[in-house]
Design a protein that fits this description.
With about 150 residues, the protein is an alpha+beta fold. The protein is built from three helices and seven strands; from the N terminus they run βααββββββα. The chain folds into two domains: about 80 residues; about 45 residues. Strands 1, 2, 3, 4, 5, 6 and 7 form a seven-stranded antiparallel beta sheet that branches. β3 and β4 form a beta hairpin. α1 runs antiparallel to α2.
Length: about 150
């Protein structure tokens, strides 16, 4: 089923998306707040914030490790999605429920093989025109699929 004249589209991901940088900054901020609050108690527990930072950093590393091999996504004129890997391979994919259009951003959730992937794309990650086209295609896909 054609998506009425859409050309093939390719969206390349930057290595560190804005959402990843914000999450790293929030982890550091949380660690600082925990250290300040812990130092005000009569029995100071030094290192509590550092431990929290370690846990949050490990979680971020784990999440990024799985996404490190993904170079982007591609959509052909028929509406078929593919995940583009850094090694040049392309895996057939499908958009999953949970994909949202949030103002000028797109929170994309898709399955490539057996792995479910998530990415939050902003105008700082992807050119605005390409992000708008992706939003239109997501909307057209939802209408076509009856969602």
């Amino acid at each position: 089923m054609s998506l009425h004249g859409y050309d093939a589209m390719r969206v390349e991901f930057k290595p560190w998306l804005v959402a990843d940088r914000v999450a790293a900054g929030l982890a550091v901020g949380c660690a600082l707040v925990i250290e300040v609050v812990a130092s005000r108690y009569p029995e100071p527990r030094p290192g509590l914030g550092v431990a929290a930072l370690g846990l949050l950093a490990a979680w971020l590393w784990y999440r990024r490790r799985g996404a490190a091999g993904v170079a982007g996504i591609a959509i052909d004129g028929e509406g078929r999605w593919q995940t583009l890997l850094a090694d040049g391979r392309a895996l057939p994919s499908e958009v999953l429920p949970g994909t949202r259009l949030l103002g000028p951003t797109v929170a994309l959730r898709w399955r490539a093989g057996t792995v479910v992937r998530h990415v939050w794309l902003t105008p700082w990650d992807v050119p605005a025109g390409q992000l708008r086209e992706l939003s239109v295609r997501l909307h057209a896909t939802r209408i076509r699929d009856g969602a």
